[in-house]
Amino acid sequence: MTEDRLSCGYATVFLFFSVFCLLSPVLCYAGQQEELENLRQRIAAMQSDMDKTSETKSEAVDALRESERVISTSNRKLAKLAAQQRAADHRLGKLQGQQQQLNANISGQQALLGKLLYQQYLGGKQEYLKLLLNNHDPGQAARDLHYYQYIARSRAAWLAALRGDLDELNAVGKAAREQRTELASLRSEQAAQKKTLEKEKHARQRMLSKISLQLRQQRREINRLQRDENRLAQLVEKITEMLAQPKSTSLFRNDNLPDNRFDGRPFDQLRGKLALPVKGEITNRFGTPRPESTVQWKGLFLRTSSGQAVKAIAAGQVVFADWLRGFGNLLIIDHGKGYMSLYGNNETLYKEVGDILRGGDTIAAAGNSGGNEDFGLYFELRHKSKPLDPVKWLANRNSPQ
After folding, report:
1. Residues 299/387, Cβ–Cβ less than 8 Å
2. Torsion (CA) 207, 208, 213, 219 in degrees, nearest 10
3. Is residue 54 classed as helix, strand or coil in its secondary structure?
4. Does some domain include residue 98?
5. What is the per-residue pLDDT across 66-120, written as a single tens digit (0 to 9) for each?
6. Are residues 289 and 355 in the same domain?
7. CA–CA distances in Å: residue 121 to residues 114, 284, 393
8. In terms of DSSP bridges, do strands 309-311 and 300-303 run parallel, antiparallel, or are they unpaired?
């Protein structure tokens, strides 16, 4: 009796353990998603508070905010739609290949069955009875009967295979039709998104023409440049404080990153080993004064063509992806241990808050958002919110001036 109770107890424990193992990944994922959404809301609230406490005086560049946000969002959606379309095309190609193979199999089976039925027709329907009633050798009769049984089994197997292939062909055909419908829907959505993008680009161009004189004047205002710098510094400081919170309230901690290494080393060991995030001409140096002002550069401006792909310099997680006055469409990556990289003035942000990145992932497309005259990328490195000279972290420090 005791052994029965123990066996029952072990079975119950094993059952609970099995159910827990099955459910724990789902529960863990749900918890992470809830925590991620909560932090996204907190970052949005933090930015909203910053906007409220910023200077109430409207600046010319603010008129571009909504258009540049919509342009970035539209381009990001188009990129996702293009990826979905490529995947759907690939699946459709595989289904069409399966259809061709199944059609070939069915044609072969039909040909074999045709030959088998023809031979049976020539032999007549009473073949078994003839074998039994004529006076042939019994051994030969047994061999002939075995032969006909083999043919009968082969015919049944071919028929079963043919029915199976026909059923599979119908299923594949249905899947292919559904895939074509999905592709048509994706193309339709893509066309609508392109219209939205073109509309916003025209709206932005009209606004630029209208405020171009104000923009040129405000670019030379030292106070404006200083306010922009302070706003970025305040943003980074607040994010740094948020990331330093206990694990239970922050998803963006270093130990939550599945890959916080680049080439097997932590970020603080990558000094002198990084590549620039975009191919372009460096038009300023860290710590040098900006044109016609005493405000110093806290990073690098890399002049490049519009739409040039911007790459993540190392593995990390996106902790900010939105428009910020003075820096346009800005993306910030947390690399762990207080290190962050900042990418500003983009036309498009392809990644969103919470996205996990690896070094070399495409994260944005360069532009001139935020009222910048030149097309390119503004790039900063920071540690615990303090700016670092990016050139000292590059593998090739003799970059073009």
Report:
1. yes
2. 120
3. coil
4. yes
5. 888 888 888 888 888 888 888 877 777 887 787 788 778 777 767 776 776 666 6
6. yes
7. 10, 91, 85
8. unpaired
Specify whether 306 is located in the same domain as 392: yes
Clarify whether residues 327 and 388 are in a common domain: yes
C-alpha 76/C-alpha 68 separation (Å) is 12
Which among 277, 396, 266 has a CA at the least distance from the CA of 338?
Answer: 266
CA neighbor of 333 nearest in space, from 267, 263, 234? 267
Q: Which of 233, 276, 238, 219 is nearest to 394 (CA)?
A: 276
User: Residue 360 class from Cβ within 10 Å (0-12 exposed, 13-18 middle, 19+ buried)?
Assistant: middle
Residue 212 near residue 138, CB atoms below 8 Å: no
d(CA 319, CA 47): 12
pTM for the structure as a whole? 0.68
What is the Cα–Cα distance from 195 to 311, expressed in whole angstroms?
27
Q: Rounded to the nearest 10 degrees, what angle do helices 222-243 and 2-53 cross at? A: 170
Number of H helices, E strands in the chain: 5, 10
Residues 240 and 296 in one domain: yes
For residues 350 and 283, the answer to whether their CB atoms sit within 8 Å is: no
Last residue of a domain, one of 199, 215, 249: 199
Domain membership of residue 71 (yes or no) is no
Domain range for 138: 88-199
377, with CB counted inside 10 A (0-12, 13-18, 19+), is buried
Token pair 């381009």 in the structure block, residue = 75
Per the structure block, which two tokens stand in for 367?
Answer: 């532009």
Examine the domain organization and report whether 388 and 251 are in the same domain: yes
| 3-class secondary structure per residue, 200-250 | HHHHHHHHHHHHHHHHHHHHCCHHHHHHHHHHHHHHHHHHHHHHCCCHHHC
Q: Into how many domains does the chain fold? A: 2
pLDDT tens-place string over residues 200-241: 888 887 777 777 777 666 666 667 777 888 888 888 988 888
